[in-house]
Amino acid sequence: MLEFNNSTPLTMGVELELQIVNRRDYNLTRGSDDLLQIINKTKHGYDIKPEITESMIEIATSVHTDHKEMLAELTAMRTLLVSAADKLNLGLAGGGAHPFQHWEDQRIYPTDRYRLVSDLYGYLAKQFTVYGQHIHIGCPDGDQAIRLSHLLARFIPHFITLSASSPFYQGVDTTFQSSRLTSINAFPLSGYMPFVTDWQAFNAYFNKMSQLGIVASMKDFYWDLRPKPEYGTVEIRVCDTPLEIETAVALGAYAQTLSKYFFERQELQPVQDTYLTYSYNRFQACRFGLNGALIDPISGTQSSIQDDILRTFDMLADAADVLGTTDAIMLLRNRVQIAQTDADWLRASYEKSGSLSDVVRRQSAVWMARQD
Question: Taking the chain, what is the end-to-end CA distance rounded to the nearest angstrom?
Answer without folding.
Answer: 52
